[in-house]
Structures are given as C-alpha cells and as structure tokens.
Design goal:
The complex is a heterotrimer of chains A (347), B (250) and C (298).
Chain A (H helix, E strand, L loop, with lengths): L28 H9 L15 E2 L4 E3 L5 E2 L3 E5 L5 E5 L3 E6 L2 E6 L11 E9 L3 E5 L6 E4 L15 H5 L1 H4 L5 E9 L5 E4 L6 E2 L3 E5 L12 E5 L6 E6 L4 E6 L4 H8 L3 H11 L10 H19 L6 H14 L10 H17 L1
Parallel strand pairs in A: 3-7, 10-12
Antiparallel strand pairs in A: 1-6, 2-5, 4-5, 6-7, 8-9, 8-11, 9-10, 11-12, 11-13, 14-17, 15-16, 16-17
Helix pairs in contact in A: 6-7, 6-8, 7-8
Chain B lengths: L16 E5 L8 E7 L2 E11 L13 E8 L15 H17 L9 E10 L4 H15 L8 E7 L20 E2 L3 H6 L2 E7 L4 E7 L3 E2 H36 L3
Chain C lengths: L8 H12 L15 E5 L5 E6 L2 E12 L10 E7 L15 H15 L10 E3 L3 E13 L4 H15 L1 E2 L2 E4 L2 E4 L8 E2 L7 E10 L5 E5 L3 H6 L2 E7 L4 E14 H34 L4 H10 L2
Parallel strand pairs in C: 4-6
Antiparallel strand pairs in C: 1-2, 2-3, 3-6, 5-6, 7-10, 8-9, 11-12, 11-13, 13-14
Classes of the chains: A alpha+beta (347), B alpha+beta (250), C alpha+beta (298).
InterPro entries (chain B): ExoRNase_PH_dom1, ExoRNase_PH_dom2_sf, PNPase/RNase_PH_dom_sf, Ribosomal_Su5_D2-typ_SF, RNase_PH
Family (chain B): Belongs to the RNase PH family.
Keywords (chain B): Cytoplasm, Exosome
Chain lengths: 347, 250, 298
C-alpha cells in the first residue's frame, strides 16, 4: 500500500540545502575511470576530497573493477552482484583502483613512524601505558626509552625499581610509534634526543584529522614581542604541546661535535626533570597566542600545518589582540583566519 | 479541525525534526542533538576506546555499551529516574542491542564504544529519538556502520479523522504517524526502526493491545516514516560535511 | 564467574548449515514447538511447565493488603522472576543478567500491562482492602525459550489459582477457609501467550530464516530474536524486537500470523490440561468446572 509521508514544516532553512543527491547517486566512473585505466599514466596518487560527500549505507559503486578500502563494505544484492557501500560519512578517496572513504571526523589510528604526544596513564613493572587518543592506549617499554647515562647502557633491575623517576602518571611526552600489533595497538619509543618528557609549556588537543601530516612535526617558531623562540610539537594524534624553546641537545651535538658519552651525561640530567625552567612573561604571552591561533584555525575547520600556523601567527600579531582566549571567540578568531587565508592566496 | 489531529497535523505528517552534529565539541568523539517535536535528546559517543576495567574486551569485535539519563525535568512531572529504573534499562538494552548489530564491530577489536544519551524533554517517541540521535552521533564519531538506523512511531486511533484523509475506510481509520505524548498515552502505538531506508526492520516495540490485522498498517506507516526520517538526517549530515569541508579551503 | 562456554566454530557451522536445509539438530520442524507438559501441584496455582528440557515453575499466592492510594479500586499483581544457578551455572544469584531483565520486562508487558488479570475484581473494600496477587516464577532448567515457558506457566497458574471467598459485613472482613466455602477462580480477561522467534541468516532464497521455540544452543547462535505476545482472539498484546539482525517487514508480519496460529494451539492445550486437572480433583463433578470455565471464556 503506497503511503505518502508529509515532511515536517521546515524549521530554519539553512541556505538551499536542496541538493538533489538523495538516493543512490553513483560514483561517476567515466570521469576518473579513464585516468585509472591508463595504468602507466602518472595519475594523481590520491584525489583527496573528490568533492562529494557519501554517507553510511550509500552505494559508492557497483562496478567490479574497484577494490574496497577503508570505510566501505561489500553488499550483495538480490541478484548476486556485489557492490561497494560506504560505512562512514566522508569523502571518497581513490588510490589507483582502491576506493576508500575518509571520514569527516575520526579517532587517531596509529601508524609506524608517527610523531605523537601522549600522556602516561599507568606505570607497570617494565612499561608504561600511554594515552595517545587512539582506540587503544599505547605501550612504552622501559627498554624503548633513553636511560640516563648512555644509550648503550644495559637496562638493570634498578631501572625497573626507579621506573617512576623517568615517567610517572600524568606526565606528557613526545614519542614515535615504533611498532603496531595485530589489534592496532601502538608501541612507542623515545630513543632519540628529539623525544622525551615535555615541560615548559601548554597542552592542547584538537581532532586528529586537523593536523596535516608533514615532514617534521616539531616546529621552532621565532616570535616577536621579545618572546624568543617557541617549540611546537604537533602530534599526529591531535595532541599539541607548545613550549619555550630549549637548546636541543642534538643540535648541540651536531655543531660542537661533543662526544656521545658527554652528550648522554648532559641528557641524563635534563631529560627527565620535572622542574620547569624560568619562562619570561613575554614568552608565555607568545605561547598562548600560538595556542589561540591553533584553536581559531581548528574552529574554522582549517588543517594545521607549518604554513598556516605562521600565517595565522602573523595575522594575529597584526591584529594585536589582547587576552588569551580569543581562539574560541568566533568573531576575532574568524578575522585572524580570514586574514591568514588572504595571505596564503597572495603568496 | 476536520481531518486534523490534536496538534494540527494530518495522519501522515511528521513533527518537525531538527538535528545537529558535533554538538559537544572535542569532549566526545561524536555527538548529536535531535529534536522531534518536543522530544529532545542529546547523545554523545566515546570510542572506539580502551574498554573499561570491567572486561577486557572481545577479541573479535568492539563492545557497545549504552547509558541513558532522563533529566528530572524532562516529563510533565518532575521524576528522577535512577539507573535501575525499568524504563531506563529497557531503553539502554534496546539502543545497545540495535547498534551492536549495525556497527561493523569486527573492525574494532578489543575496544569499547560508549553511547551516552540524555533525554532532555519527552513528548512521545523517546526511543525513536534516542535511536536517531545515536545514529547521528556515531556518524559524527566516524564509527563504521552498515547504514543509518532510523526510528519512528506509529499509532492506531480508534476512530478515523474523517475529512479527506486518503485511503482509509471508515471502519479502518488511518494510523497516525509519529505520535506525540498525548496520543501515545491514548492510543496503541509502536516504535519501529529500520536499517537504511528500506524495509529492513531492526527494532519493533509495542506495548499495547491491537488487532493483528491492524499491525500491518501501523508497521507500513512507521516504516515509511523511517524512510523520511532517514532523508532528513542524511540531508543534515551532508550539510554538516559540506560545511566542514568548505573550511579547509580545498 | 562461570560463563556460558562459547559454541565452537564447527558446531556453529553444523547447526547453521543444517538450518539452511530446513533441519534442526533435535529433528523438529523449523516452526514447531517442543511438547509442552503441564504438571499441576496439589495446591491451586502451582504449575510446573516443561518444554523439552526447559523447566519452569510458577506459584501464585494471594494476600490482603491496602491498595495504592492513586488506584483505590484495583488490586495488586506482581510477577517476580529470578534466574539462579539452578537453571544454568551461567546465572548468578543477586546479579541480574540481561536475560533476567528481558524476561521480567516482557512478562510485565505481556501479562500485566495487557490487563490479563482484571485488577478491579481483586478489590474487597474500596481504598482499604484489596487482594495482592503474586506470581513467583522459578527457573529449574534452562534449555532455551525460558520466556515462552514462563509466560505459559504464569498464565496457567493464574487460571488454575483459586481465591478464597471473602464476605464483607460492615467493617468486618471474613476470609473463608477453603474447606468452608469453595474458593473461586480469578477473573482473567484473556490469555496472552508469548511466542519467541529466533532469526538466523538468509536461506538460499535470501530470506531470513526464523525458528520457534529455540533450544539453548540455537539461542546462542541466533542473529536476532523477537517476542510477540498474542491471545487466542488474535490480539497482539506486545511486540519486542530490540536490535539483532534487521528483518524484512513482510517476514515480521508472517511471524505475527504464525504466532497467532501457534497461540490458538497452546491456548487449547492449556484449557484441556486445566479441565483434566479439575476432573481429577472433583472426581467427575463437573458443575464446579463449568462455573470456572465460563469466567475464563470471556
């Protein structure tokens, strides 16, 4: 029996909203199909944001030439043919013949080599459990950190007893994803002088998808107003640490050619310290300004990378905003973002 | 008044649905707010995350847990519903079971998806609004699902509306779509939830006595309502997605 | 905590593949109930229901109490269920499982909210004295379909129960002893019977398979379930399908109609068993019985 359902009266008609892409809108294979079929053609690796949004249950394609990737599943229709259906709301991305859906918002999924900022959740006998905003907490083994007194030193039972002197609950650290197990649980390491305990700064979280993957996720930004240099650790997992720049020990090693052992001795003193250095009020002001820029960019759904951060910071300086909470204030934040975008278009 | 219900709708008219994604900012992985008439529900989803201390999580998939909170001011009388309230538990089980079978849990081994629902105002169709809000919050959290789960209610009035309402005979009045609180307490009604826009029914819940012959009509109306709800929710998801993508300037 | 052991993959495949060929492990038809055995105790209102290896006991008791202030004309009726380790080691005392909640909730919806028992008939003196009827359900053995069995048990026990006669004269209320005056049956308006369907994956034709009266093994393997409560007049008192596999609406309707058919059979079976028991008790004196049935036939 055919039943006609009257739609409810509209509430606020947000713009047009009347795009006619309801129902089984299919992927336009013809447009991209020829690109993909010329296998040797240097096709775009991934056509990010093919522009169209798919929602769960939407038919992506029933063409058997495509392979299904993340965010899709196979559905068998009554006549036995298989089609690729989306399981997420997001945009289609194509890598050669692989179709996957990139969700609008998602939890961080660790990958080997990612730089992450994490927080210690639990101290166990030979390891730490670290929150990295992923589906599973990561582990950091005692053997994967730099022990004071030299990389090559053997781990002893004394170290196990003193495990809390390195990291204890609530400590923040920057680390790299070393391995992943079958469940996708990450194991971290900090065996580089770039990584380790974080201090002298502020912590910030954003959605994992808002950090653009870059060559380097540790930025050092010169600031004005006498703020000196500021380090920004943009964890791929969406955790961000902004801190006063400390003369990196690894830099020192390259310049002065200090012997490894000497270096390690120095490292051992500083690396697990829980005491902040003295930070001038000017530096604090600049740290918080950068924090506001990041919040404003995220609010405007703009992915964070070095370029946008620099442009945003410049724009913020020009506006010379006072106070440290304008990042969440839409009006001021939006002005900064617009100014930054204008600058980017100019360059 | 001819042909109209007590709130001025026709038999096949939905109440105004207003929905919104990402209402709770970064405190949850996904969140949504749904208003169906005066029924208002807020949903937040956390996960996939490390399972709580109680269990270690299933090795073959994610566990779904659900908590429902009724605000004391949500009904006509101020009632504080505790955690062991039967109605609360019933809702929790219904939502939990529904989504455990729709979320593609096998992709998220040893993790937990926690759904938390806050019923802010009740005006009939609480279960339906809870299911709709959860669907949107899960989409916002980027949790893989087979399809939308959309819910709607349908009631069977004893006497027809008269007037020019289509289809129904005099002795078989048209079922009411999307009943409000008054209608819900007055006439037999059922809640139905479908997976996707089709006829795949995930949830049916009816608590009142009705002739078996009338069930079919009620189900049919409910299912058509679900399809309409899906369109409305889908539109909002697309609008939200567009807004989100526009910002990136790409 | 003892947990129900999981079914092995081989067992699972065996059962599911057999189902695809319309075979069940215990040799029943897909839509057949196991034999229902009703055993009545010496007292009225005591029934032992056996459904295959599932065994459920129901006991009705009555006492005189004050009515609720907002419902002065109505008697009280409560159903209490508790799954204990007696039925299966997987159930714990004092920690109600999800199944526990489901059973008590659906029994409540099926019997109490559908007004199977006429609550007003339990009134003795308005706003002062009413009967409080209590149904205690005990689960003795669990082999699936606990809900269906307990619903049959409660309904049968209610129909079997006899309430002592009460006479009111002025302020005095006299409850007559069973020996003194013949007790009367409860006023039951209709007999709602629960039928639980278990859904499995698609068969060859792409249709969802559904079973009736699943055993514990089948319950562990099913992809979804739905309980429909119907009475013999074809009125649906309650439907509960929360989650599980999504099923075509058409199949749901087919289930509902099948449930109505099955309920007619069960209803008749309960009626027969009650009559037989009455015959046995009264050694052939049928006048009594007619009185009882007339009420139930409404």
């Amino acid at each position: 029996m055919p039943i006609q359902i009257i739609a409810p009266a509209p509430f606020v008609d947000a713009g047009d909203g009347d795009d006619d892409d309801e129902g089984g809108v299919r992927l336009d294979v013809d447009n991209d199909g020829d690109v993909a079929m010329e296998g040797d053609a240097p096709s775009r690796k991934t056509s990010r944001h093919a522009g169209r949004i798919v929602t769960p249950g939407e038919l992506v394609t029933d063409d058997p030439q495509w392979m299904r990737g993340h965010g899709t599943y196979l559905s068998t229709t009554a006549d036995g043919s298989q089609s690729i259906v989306s399981s997420l709301a997001g945009t289609i991305s194509k890598t050669n013949k692989l179709l996957s859906i990139c969700a609008l918002r998602f939890r961080y999924v660790p990958e080997i080599g990612d730089l992450v900022v994490g927080r210690i959740l639990e101290v166990q006998t030979k390891r730490w459990r670290v929150d990295i905003a992923a589906p599973h907490s990561a582990t950091l083994l005692l053997s994967s950190i730099n022990l004071p007194g030299g990389i090559l030193r053997k781990r002893t039972s004394t170290d196990e007893l003193q495990i809390r002197t390195f990291f204890s609950e609530g400590d923040l650290l920057v680390a790299e994803v070393q391995t992943l197990n079958s469940d996708g649980q990450a194991s971290l390491h900090t065996r580089s002088l770039k990584y380790g305990k974080l201090r002298n700064g502020v912590f910030l979280t954003v959605d994992a998808g808002m950090i653009r993957r870059m060559k380097s996720h540790v930025l050092t930004m010169p600031t004005s107003n006498g703020g000196g240099e500021v380090d920004i650790y943009l964890g791929v997992n969406g955790y961000i640490w902004i801190a006063k720049h400390t003369a990196s020990l690894s830099d020192g090693a390259g310049d002065k050619g200090v012997s490894i052992t000497r270096l390690e001795e120095e490292a051992s003193e500083a690396i697990y310290s829980n005491v902040n250095e003295e930070i001038s009020p000017e530096t604090r002001a600049e740290i918080s300004r950068i924090g506001c820029v990041i919040r404003a960019l995220v609010k405007a759904n703009i992915k964070i990378d070095e370029e946008m951060l620099n442009l945003g910071y410049e724009a913020a300086l020009e506006e010379a905003l006072q106070g440290y909470d304008w990042g969440s204030d839409t009006a001021a934040g939006k002005r900064i973002v617009d100014a930054a975008l204008a600058k980017r278009r100019k360059t | 008044m001819e042909g109209l219900r007590n709130d001025g709708r026709r038999w096949n008219e939905l109440r105004r649905i207003h929905c919104q994604l990402s209402t709770s900012g970064s405190s949850a992985d996904g969140s949504a707010y749904v208003e169906q008439g005066f029924t208002k529900v807020l949903c937040t989803v956390t996960g996939p995350a490390e399972p709580g201390s109680r269990q270690r999580g299933r090795s073959d998939g994610a566990t779904v847990v659900c908590e429902v909170y009724f605000a004391a001011f949500s009904g006509t009388d101020r009632i504080k519903r505790g955690r062991n309230d039967k109605k609360v538990q019933e809702l929790q089980t219904a939502v939990q079971k529904t989504f455990a079978s729709v979320i593609l849990t096998h992709l998220l081994a040893r993790s937990e998806i926690a759904i938390s629902l806050h019923v802010l105002s009740q005006d009939g169709g609480t279960l339906a609004a809870c299911i709709n809000a959860t669907t949107l919050a899960l989409i916002d959290a980027g949790i893989p699902m087979a399809d939308y789960v959309c819910a709607c209610t349908a009631g069977q009035p004893a006497i027809g509306l008269g007037g020019g309402s289509g289809g129904g005979d005099d002795d078989e009045p048209d079922p009411y779509l999307d009943v409000n609180y008054l209608e819900e307490s007055d006439i037999p009604s059922l809640t139905v939830a479908t997976v996707g826009g089709g006829e795949k029914v995930a949830v049916v819940s009816m608590e009142s006595r009705v002739r078996i012959e009338r069930l079919e009509a009620m189900l049919a109306v409910g299912i058509s309502g679900c399809a309409r709800v899906r369109e409305i929710m889908d539109k909002e998801v697309r609008r939200y997605g567009k807004e989100k993508l526009d910002g990136t300037g790409e | 905590m003892p947990k129900e052991p999981e079914t092995s993959l081989a067992e699972k495949t065996f059962v599911l593949e057999a189902l695809k060929q319309n075979l069940r492990v215990d040799g029943r038809e897909l839509h057949a109930f196991r034999d229902v055995q009703l055993i009545f105790g010496d007292d009225y209102g005591f029934v032992d229901v056996r459904l295959g290896k599932t065994r459920v006991l129901a006991r009705i008791s009555a006492e005189v109490t004050k009515p609720r202030s907002d419902r002065p004309f109505e008697g009280l009726f409560t159903i209490s269920t508790e799954l204990g380790p007696m039925a299966s080691p997987a159930f714990e005392v004092g920690r109600p499982s999800e199944l526990d909640h489901t059973i008590s909730r659906i029994l409540e919806r099926s019997i109490r909210r559908s007004h199977a028992l006429d609550a007003e008939s339990l009134c003795i003196v308005t706003a002062q004295r009413v009967w409080s009827i209590r149904a205690d359900v005990h689960f003795l053995s669990h082999d699936g379909s606990l809900l269906d069995a307990s619903c049959i048990a409660v309904i049968t026990a209610l129909a079997h129960f006899r309430l002592p006669v009460v006479t009111v004269s002025g302020e005095d209320i006299t409850i007559h002893d069973v020996e003194e005056r013949v007790p009367v049956p409860l006023s039951i308006l209709h007999w709602p019977i629960c039928v639980t369907f278990s859904f499995f994956g698609d068969d060859e034709n792409g249709e969802t398979m559904y079973l009736l009266d699943a055993t514990a093994q089948e319950e562990a393997l099913r992809a979804g379930d739905m309980t429909i409560t119907v009475n013999k007049n074809g009125e649906i008192c309650q439907i509960a399908k929360s989650g599980g596999v999504a099923v075509e609406a058409e199949i749901l309707m087919r289930c509902a109609r099948l449930a109505a058919e099955k309920v007619k059979v069960i209803d008749k079976m309960i009626g027969d068993a009650l009559r037989e028991d009455e015959l046995r008790r009264n050694k052939g004196n049928l006048d009594w019985l007619k009185e009882g049935r007339a009420e139930n036939d409404r």
